[in-house]
Amino acid sequence: MIFKPVQLGREALDPQTLAADKKNCRRIGPCGVGDKALYLNSFYLDRRYYVTYPSITRAFKRVAMSRGGFTQKGVFASIPYLVVQYDNGKEKQCNFKYEEQVDQLLDCLAKTHPEIKRVSAAAEERLAQRERERAARKKPNLSPEAQKSIRTLEQASDYLTQKPELAQELSLSAKRKRAYLCSKPSYRWVALAITLLGVASLIFGVTLFAQGSGSFGAYFALFGLAAIFMFSGASVLPTAQNNKKVVMGRADRALQAMEDYLRNYDSFPVPARYAHPIVLQRMIRVLEEGRAVHLPEALEAVKQELKSLNSDVEVDQEEYDEVVAIKPMFLNENYR
């Protein structure tokens, strides 16, 4: 190992076990999930720290939102973090570039270490309160038609969970498509200017270093600014993986894959473009609360809920996760 991971928590791994575990860990973004420990990033280095699983009490997502976060407008929409709490009070926060990578890491932890709580203590209480509120809103005596609709949705949800990657890709590709469609052309010019500033800082720093002038602090500042400017601008500039053809093609392939999968299902309750377990679960809630009886009515109620949730509405983490997973699919289709 070029950089030996720094130990967090009371429990340490011997050098041989640590080296093997880090080498074979599942890398998700800047972090990693090993057999013995969870590997966390520093600001500059991936998988710079490690903490063994017995030390971890909670691991959850935290999202810092900018003004345009909910609509995906603006160059910087949201900053996702993985927060790991260990040793009864200590905490390490890791920044990620893509929010879905935090979700993937937490899903991986849920399968390998279900004993680790994946929400904060405050969120745990809010979730319990939400479940009590939902239970209170459920109608005790539903009509046979409503019960039949619920069973249909539950069966459809079970069918989707047999291949969860299809719904996940449908959601992720829809978010990328929505972000691209909402990005103004002027943002690309701003990104180009930022990138050029980074290049200029880099050239100036290399020139000072070659001439032997300047101090270590000047080199550090110039190279740091170059990295910040270039990384910030490159995330917006069109690239081989960030252009209209790639983004739209990915969305089309995700929809086609879902349509092919649903051909084997007789009368799926929602169109393939909305075939996501969260959509079905929200429809079930609508039916259980007596706000609809038939499937088309339940889907329309879900659409109205999503329309009402905009950047001016404050929601908790669970609601946020649900909305950002499915709302882009509806927005891209103009709720048709």
List keywords for this structure.
single chain; alpha+beta; PH-domain like; 3 domains; five-stranded mixed beta sheet
Overall description:
The chain folds into three domains: 6-113, PH-domain like (Roll), CATH 2.30.29; 140-182 and 242-332, no CATH class; 185-234. 55% of the residues lie in helices and 12% in strands. The chain contains eleven helices and eight strands. It has helices at 15-23, 99-112, 121-137, 144-161, 164-182, 185-211, 216-234, 244-262, 277-288, 295-308, 317-332; strands at residues 6-8, 26-28, 31-33, 37-40, 49-52, 56-65, 78-86, 90-95. The strands form two sheets. The chain has a five-stranded mixed beta sheet with strand order 1-5-4-3-2, sandwiched between helices. Strand 2 (26-28) and strand 3 form a beta hairpin. Helix 5 (164-182) runs antiparallel to helix 8 (244-262), helix 5 packs across helix 11 and helix 9 (277-288) crosses helix 10 (295-308). It is globular. The N and C termini lie far apart (53 Å).
Quickly describe the structure.
This protein is of the alpha+beta class and 336 residues long. It is built from 11 helices and 8 strands.
Summarize the helices and strands and which ones pair or pack.
Layout: E1 6-8, H1 15-23, E2 26-28, E3 31-33, E4 37-40, E5 49-52, E6 56-65, E7 78-86, E8 90-95, H2 99-112, H3 121-137, H4 144-161, H5 164-182, H6 185-211, H7 216-234, H8 244-262, H9 277-288, H10 295-308, H11 317-332
Parallel strand pairs: 1-5
Antiparallel strand pairs: 2-3, 3-4, 4-5, 6-7, 7-8
Helix pairs in contact: 4-9, 5-8, 5-11, 6-7, 9-10
